[in-house]
Amino acid sequence: MTLPGVLDGIKIVEFSQNAAIPHCGRLLAGLGADVVKVEPPTGDAMRYLAPIGDDGRAYLTTNPGKRAIVLDLTSQKAPAVVDRLFGWADIALVAMKPADLERYGLDWDHARTVNPQLVHLTHTALGPEGPASHHGGYDVLVQGRSGIGWTMNRTRDGTPQSTRPAVNDYGTGMVSAFAVMAGLRHRDQTGEGQRIDTSLLGTAMSLCTPTVAWFEQDAEGYERLQEEIDALRLGGLSFAEQRDHYERRVEAAGGVFRLYFRHYRTADGLISVAGLSAHLFAKLHEATGIAAPPRRRIDDEFLAVVDAMETFFAERTSSELLDLLEAHGYPSGPYNTPHEAAFDEQVRANNFVIELDHPTVGRYATSGMPIQMEKSRAEIRGPSPQLGEHTREVMAELGLDDSTIDALHAAGVIKSLDD
């Protein structure tokens, strides 16, 4: 028996490109919503990223389960179509600079006059208020502003490199899906729509909850640390050296992360281990036969234990170590490449990665839904749509007759797959 989706019957129009809000639409489609993606005549920019056949790998993995139409928002005849889409939809997902929202009639103040019950998600890079609210932006810029890059970025030649995958983009997709569901609940309770704001920066700061904390009692220490970092910058020290200094000063549990909660090199690769309690710490020492350090403060005695543990792991294979640690109840797991992760049996057993068939690209794998529900369907249904694949179909659902649709085609306002 096919289970119903909790969003069956919910109609969503998505005015967005790239990753963040398209990922939101992807998740909502997986819960049963009918998501119509609106693209410009040239298509979403992701269609040109990592090309394969007539499409892009980035687009194909970000947009499964949707329908797609082409609408030239710069056309003088586009606003009438936009209004029909707002009237048709329960939810609008809109991600553009504030000035463009008004220019194309996509802003909430206009949308509410068309459909006051609409749940209107307005996404910006840096949030709706503040001196930079009018700026566009991408994940890498928010990695820098939020401090998330300071702790997560890899380095090359002493300079930070952007973190991949784009955690703020895909995190914002999840946050936005959560926000939209809350907006639907409010509409169910009151009959009213509302504007909802999400941003890359807001998501990043939420992800940074443990690292952006500030306590008044520590204020002098923070000031001294900032002076030290400023001096290192002026002294020309590399990013890696600056971060190492920062982490030595800030990581209260630094010893734990050096010994018990980390990745270890093995004889044939890497594995991950994770213990955060004295009970688990004892299990690691029991499994390896290496005595615990007298203190968990980083000193010579502690580092000698770290060296011994690294040697122990390096002399044994990953599978041997994983079996040993599992037998002693110490949390551990493989350290996969992305390709290995896509075929990990635990991942596949839960449909966290699925395979789809595309009419021009063929079979491909992509992430599935991150949740399962007992009574409701949560699954990716179908591959990402081709450019303009559903334009005529959706225009008809909006109530336009064939002659009007043909006229919009002729004027270049809309475009179909077969154009």
Percent range for helical residues? Answer: 40-55%
- Separation of the first and last Cα atoms: 39 Å
What oligomeric state best describes the polypeptide chains here?
Answer: single chain
- Output the strand order for the largest sheet: 10-7-6-1-2-5-16
Q: Which segments are poorly predicted (pLDDT under 50) over 5 or more consecutive residues?
A: none
- Look at the structure and give the mean pLDDT: 93
Total number of beta strands: 16
| Rg (CA only) | 26 Å
**Shape call:** globular
- Given helix and strand content, the structural type is alpha/beta
Q: What does this 3D model show about the protein?
A:
This protein is α/β, with parallel strands linked by helices and 419 residues long. It has 19 helices and 16 strands. It has helices at 20-30, 57-62, 78-88, 98-103, 108-114, 139-146, 148-152, 167-190, 200-207, 219-234, 239-250, 254-259, 278-288, 300-314, 318-327, 338-342, 345-349, 391-397, 402-410, and strands at 11-15, 34-39, 51-52, 55-56, 67-71, 91-95, 119-124, 154-156, 159-161, 194-199, 261-266, 269-274, 332-334, 353-358, 362-367, 414-415. The protein has a seven-stranded mixed beta sheet, with helices on both faces. A three-stranded antiparallel beta sheet has the order 11-12-13. Strands 3-4 form a two-stranded antiparallel ribbon. Strand 14 (353-358) and strand 15 (362-367) form a beta hairpin. The protein is globular. The relative contact order is 0.13. The model has no long low-confidence stretch (mean pLDDT 93).
